[in-house]
Amino acid sequence: MRSLILSFAAVFAQTASAQAPVFDVHVHLREGETSLRAYEADVASAKLELAGVGAMWFGGPHQARQGDTATIRVGNDGVIALAAKHAKVLPIATVHPYDGQAALDELTRVAAKGVKVVKLHAHTQGFDASDARVLATVKHAGTLGMVVLMDNANILPGDSERLFNLAVQAPKTRFVFAHIGGLNFRFWNILALARTAEAFFADNIHFDISATVLLAADSPLEAEFVWTLRNVGIDRVLLGSDYPQITLGRTVDAFERLDLTSEEKAKIRSENAARLFGLPMAASRRN
Ligand SMILES: [Zn+2]
Fold first, then answer.
1. How many CB atoms lie within 10 A of CB 163?
2. Residues 89, 83 contacting (CB under 8 angstroms)
3. Helix 32-45, helix 248-256: angle, nearest 10
């Protein structure tokens, strides 16, 4: 009987968690408004309530390459305009670090228009994350109060190591590393120890678990993945889909199968994102 009550409680907690709104921090809207409508329809078909969506204009056929400063500006303005019309859209801009001063100027320009997040992707944009221009870019973003979202799928060797070093060198910048290192997620358990080193690590790293969560759920690695999320800090973990490559429905389905508590799931579903990005829902949710 006791176990029946416990399992009923577990099912209830799961249901409550499954109905909580989701903030999807990692969405590529290739065709602006049209893509947003398709994305929202897809989310609705999965019976999910959207708390917000971190939207990027680049990815897939659109890439922000070195020297394409005019294209980058038009793209950034496009997603800013989309966010102005849709309250749930958190605009994510980009620059190319090798554009030097032009990249820094573009960050200043979009920050003045309210952009809080910039995404950089070493593999698709073609830069080395250990280059001094990347450090200058992320430090400037930090002084503007922007969060830097960077790809961390471990496509390139040394990906996680370089990103860790970058975050250590830019302690005043807050980072989100997308995909939490792919199947090299084990690397990031080092953060539990980095916190114990005096005046070394500013605890400025967050993660989105997009894509990787699909492989981890119900896998032989699931217990280790959950252990990793707790070591990096449940408060530092965000949910993302990487739409259109992966839908939010598939992502949440995998996420809900992880052996996390309902409190932990609520934080990851939307509370951490609201706090990190300073969204109004953070305040209202606490009351
Ligand atoms: Zn992506």
1. 24
2. yes
3. 40
Q: What is the pLDDT of residues 122-172, one digit of tens each?
A: 999 999 999 999 999 999 999 999 999 999 999 988 999 999 999 999 999
Give the structural domain span for 235.
Answer: 2-286
Using an 8 Å Cβ cutoff, are 90 and 117 in contact? Answer: yes
Ligand 1 mean position to 26 CA, how many Å? 6
Q: What DSSP character marks residue 234?
A: G
How many structural domains is the chain composed of? 1
List the one residue out of 256, 244, 175 whose CA is nearest residue 214. 256
| Separation between Cα atoms, residue 200 and residue 13, nearest integer Å | 39
Per-residue pLDDT tens digits for 197-243:
999 999 999 999 999 999 999 999 999 999 999 999 999 999 999 99
Closest to 250 measured CA to CA, from 57, 45, 88, 58:
45
CA 58 to centroid of ligand 1, rounded, Å:
9
Quote the ligand 1 centre to 211 CA distance (angstroms).
Answer: 9
Element (H, E) at 178: strand 174-178
Q: How far is the CA of 152 from the centre of ligand 1 (A)?
A: 10
Tokens encoding 238 = 């965000």
**From CA 248, how far away is CA 250, in angstroms rounded?**
6
Q: How many residues does the chain have?
A: 287
Amino acid at 149: L
Bond preceding residue 244 cis, omega within 30 of 0: yes
Give the distance (Å) from ligand 1 centre to CA of residue 27.
7
Distance CA 113, CA 239 (A): 25
CATH code of residue 175: 3.20.20.140
